[in-house]
């Protein structure tokens, strides 16, 4: 029997809640080399170099294979388009910080509150029996139906690939299990094939948490020293059989099968500095993706504050409620600096998408109850969105990170009100 992790079970439940499973109702070693990020830097097109080039958005040098340089970046009098703006344009969205909603926020509830997000995120979980390809017929049609529903509502689909937790979080033994890995890669390939068939840009968030477990268990945090079955796949035959090669293969397979897919890696800051995490993620090819996934914090603060937290909110030490004055720790400016430092260490000047941002309502009283725990991320980030635009964010995606967290169904209209005010102000400019 396949055992799903706590986050994976929540993801499965929330994905089913969001769309249902019916017929669509409602610097490291780079192995064989990776394709460059697609068209993010230049105003009209991007030139691809074989050994790294300058990123046209903010002038940062791009290391590794295949950096990009924007047209007009040198001479000619044409100003390069910032990478953030180019990405938003590629998505068919305005040049402002985009707003998204994820798992636990049903489309029906968005419609009833007249909320029109730019992005809607959905999990793809499991490998084998009961995994996401089986949620619809034919196999993998869950992506097709879900994306069509999202697009019909005027939003861009985003899929969070969360297959590596199938046999338990942090279980890296599966990386050298041929049966599991062949199924894993078959599902990744199917994901890209289904996305390619849509013919439109789709955002893909590649394996949250997994990279943190690799860092925690790899000798010296070195993903090139963790064995993983990779080059048995035809799209990745030149890549190393390591966790580093696995990350590179996720990008390389996506570029070959679904060139309109926009890919992002989520770094984990559990036990390393931004520079250390950046070095690790370069080895897995994160600098060759299209954006950075910056996980905000996946639970409402109040859920961790109560005397007897639910299972999904245990295992952390406080304080949990962020300081809006940005003096005491934890606070919002600390979080912004950490991701900015990581972005610099990663290189290539990639845009940032803040993800799984909790949706609780501010309160002076710690704690709360299921579905009504206090938090202040929505309030702060929508009132101060320009801080995120100024630090190279192109989007903020809000969602419940567990089954008892606050959502638009239980926030008393907070997100609907603040997002409408944000849009009425014209949104936050991109940098």
Describe the structure in your own words.
The structure is a single chain. The protein has 431 residues and is of the alpha/beta class. It has a single domain (6-24, 37-41, 81-308, 319-424), classed as TIM Barrel (Alpha-Beta Barrel). The model is unreliable at 1-6 and 8-75 (pLDDT under 50). It has helices at 6-19, 83-90, 107-112, 141-152, 178-198, 210-217, 243-257, 274-283, 301-305, 332-346, 377-383, 385-389, 414-424; strands spanning 46-48, 68-70, 98-101, 119-125, 156-162, 202-206, 261-265, 291-295, 352-357, 368-369, 372-373, 393-398. Helix content is 32%, strand content 13%. An 8-stranded parallel beta barrel has the order 3-4-5-6-7-8-9-12, surrounded by 5 helices. The protein is built from 13 helices and 12 strands.
Short account of what is shown:
By secondary structure, the protein is α/β, with parallel strands linked by helices.
SSE topology:
Elements: H1 6-19, E1 46-48, E2 68-70, H2 83-90, E3 98-101, H3 107-112, E4 119-125, H4 141-152, E5 156-162, H5 178-198, E6 202-206, H6 210-217, H7 243-257, E7 261-265, H8 274-283, E8 291-295, H9 301-305, H10 332-346, E9 352-357, E10 368-369, E11 372-373, H11 377-383, H12 385-389, E12 393-398, H13 414-424
Parallel strand pairs: 3-4, 3-12, 4-5, 5-6, 6-7, 7-8, 8-9, 9-12
Antiparallel strand pairs: 1-2, 10-11
